[in-house]
Amino acid sequence: MTSAPLIPIHSYLVVSVLLFAIGLIGVFTRRNAIAVLLSIELMLNAANINFVAFWRYSGGAQMEGQVFAIAIITVAAAEAAIALAIILNVYRRFRTVNVDQINLMKG
Amino acid sequence: MGGYELYLIPGFPLIASLLIAALLLRRGERVAPFALIAALLGSLSLSVWALSLTEGHRSFSTALTWLHVGSITLEAGILIDGLSSIMMIVVCTVSLLVQIYSIGYMKGEAGYGRYFAYMSLFSGSMLGLVISDNIAQTYIFWELVGICSYLLIGFWYRRPCAAAAAKKAFVVTRFGDLGFLTAILILSFQSHGILGPHAVFGFRPLEHLVGAGAMGPTIVTVVALLLFCGAVGKSAQFPLHIWLPDAMEGPTPVSALIHAATMVAAGVYLVARCYFFFAAAPIALFVVAIIGLATLFFAASMGVAENDIKRVLAYSTISQLGYMMLALGVGGYTAGFFHLTTHAFFKALLFLTAGSVIHSVHTNDMWQMGGLGRRMPITAITCLVGALALAGIPPLSGFWSKDEILAAVWFSAIPGGKIIFAFALAGVVLTAFYMFRLWFVTFTGAPRTEMAAHAHESPLVMTIPLLVLATLVVVAGGLKAYVPWASGGIAEVIRFGHGEDRASSVVMAASMVVAVIGIAVAWAAYRASVISPAAFNARFPAVYHLLKNAWYFNRAWELFATHVVIAGARLAAWFDRHVVNGMVDGVAWISGWIANRLRLAQTGQMQFYALVFVIALIAGLIVVFGRDQSLLTLVMRRP
To answer: Distance between CA B238 and CA B461 in Å, rounded?
Structure first.
């Protein structure tokens, strides 16, 4: 079914690392909670790329890589729903979704 | 020999005290003394049996383990030898007679049952102290007799002076007890590990340890001196003697039993019981002798100017206890204990006669008495017997024991022995003088008050114990020559090492002559009015005031308490407030300071937390996989 891939796995891993790094930097730097959420989605997708790439390059006999990728997409959808609900509540309470303004736990 | 039944010697009165406290206090107060008397009769017969068991200078001990605490094992034990069994017979006899006397003396008194409950507790505790085979148990009973003394001095607790006297007695003896407790603590550290894993408290094991030189001479000396501290407090020795005259606020039978015959003798008994420490520490022995000498001389001189009949006897007791300590200090082991025995009888007798007089005249001031001899003949004659014994007139018991003490001093090799002897002899003169001053003023001449003129003899229940005690005072001197189950007399039963048996007709004659001089001066001053005491006082006001105020010892202690002790307390309070509290506060402050710094880490910024989390994760990964190249090569391997 599968022939030897033309593009080496490195390329996929580099894309995945870049995507993950962009997501991480977004989590650290974006002030808007929704943007933070989006960045987390990027990181999850970086993991997805890894799963599929490793599956493809390890022979592709079993389906774990794809199954996990689909599981992560499902979890990400659920997570997005909950996170958006939280953000909505945070907005009602603080009238802002800027995460740096929500510092009730400051010591 | 099992001997467990001998536990009942202290057991009987202790059971009686529980019985009286639990059952008889509410109803049946009248039966209370009989419960105690029955208990004491049981204890007395067991004590006599115990003495019979020591025939042939034997001794034995039994112990029950009471509790283990770490390396310390406390035991409830009994040690039966000549010393303890004779002491127990003395305690039981005097206590028995005092209880019978108390039935009459305390009649109609509020707290009649309470009185006998305390007395039972005291008798049991005193017997427990005497029979004890280890120093820890001795200390427990030592404190128990102390608390009984406190309770009984303050028996009339509604009277402020009685309450104050009780407190004073308790606090002053506490000074000494501190030394005793320290000695026990030192022993528990020093003896630990020598004979096994446990600390040694038993008298006989300790004697072996000291005899074998297992403890250094310094330790032995320190322990001996600290034990003597306890004895100084309990036996009212100089300079802690000040509590005993005040203790006379208690009922007179209490003074007779506790503050004359038994409890105050416990200090002497302790020194005798722990004599192996003292024998191995010449410095301690010398201190004992000097303190004894100072006590006997000062106290005797204080007795000369006292007008309260009971306080005269209290000073006399202090002075006689000083003689006993002096005897022990110069090595007169038998003499000291012999005097303890005879003194218990004649001083109890004297106190009981004083009580009889007070019961009848309702005052303690001897100058409000006079001429009581004709109205109270039994009291007067028994008091005379006691006074002659105290003064040391043969053939009464006091003569024999005092003579032995003087002989022991005379023959001792102690430095300054002859000077000590001179002071001891001077004490004999003073003793004879104050005692006969008391007797002449109280019982002879014309009645000085209305009350004295209408005095009447006490009831039989009081006079019979007086007569029995007077008989004992007369015959107790015979112990010198004969003790049941020991043909050689008291020196065979009570001895340390090889014992000592020296007599000197010179000493005997000297003590007799000076006693007669003392009596003659008292007669001349207070009976025949040849010498005028008032003129003497006017001539030497300094001497009079010094004696009248008991050498200002109370004043000195008061100054000591108000200045030195309070200053010490201030210092301790300062230390507590600034150093001890400061340390506690410091711990709290440092924790707060660190917390204040640490809380800055809690920014409340979610992204900051995430950053820290990621950095920590990367650091963790580097630590775990940092040196493991395989993971990297796995990823980097080209297909």
So the answer is: 37
User: Binning pLDDT at 50, 70 and 90, where does residue B1 land?
Assistant: very low
Q: What's the average model confidence in pLDDT over B625-636?
A: 67
**Nearest Cα to Cα of residue B39 among B101, B105, B103, B99:** B99
pLDDT value at position B467?
Answer: 92
On whether residue A27 sits in a domain, the answer given is yes
Q: Please state, in angstroms and rounded to a whole number, the distance separating the CA atoms of residues B453 and B288.
A: 46
pLDDT digits (tens, 9 = 90+) for B562-576: 888 889 999 999 999
Give the domain extent around A58: 9-94
Q: CATH number of the domain at A20, please.
A: 1.10.287.3510
Interface test with B, best of A7, A16, A27, A97 (most B CBs within 10 A): A27
Determine, for residues A107 and B603 on separate chains, whether the beta-carbon distance falls below 8 Å: yes
Does A99 contact chain B (CB < 8 Å)? Answer: yes
The reported pTM is 0.76
How many distinct structural domains can be found in chain A?
Answer: 1
Which of B605, B609, B618, B634 has the most A C-beta neighbours within 10 Å, making it the best mutation to test the interface with A? Answer: B605
Alpha carbon B600 to its chain centroid, in Å, reads: 66
| H or E element in which residue B63 lies | strand B60-69
**B599 and A107: CB-CB below 8 Å?**
yes
A74 lies in some domain: yes
The interaxial angle of helices B160-190 and B217-234, nearest 10 deg, is 170
* ipTM for the assembly: 0.84
Query: Cβ–Cβ of B604/A105 closer than 8 Å?
Result: yes
Q: Does A8 touch chain B (CB under 8 A)?
A: yes
B81-136 pLDDT, tens digit each: 888 888 999 999 999 999 999 998 888 888 888 889 999 999 999 999 999 988 98
Tokens of B280: 């191995």
Query: A43-99, pLDDT tens digit by residue?
Result: 999 999 999 988 888 877 788 888 999 999 999 999 999 999 999 999 999 898 888
Q: What is the pLDDT of residues B48-59, one digit of tens each?
A: 988 888 877 778
Q: How far is residue B158's CA from residue B152's CA, in Å, rounded to a whole number? A: 13
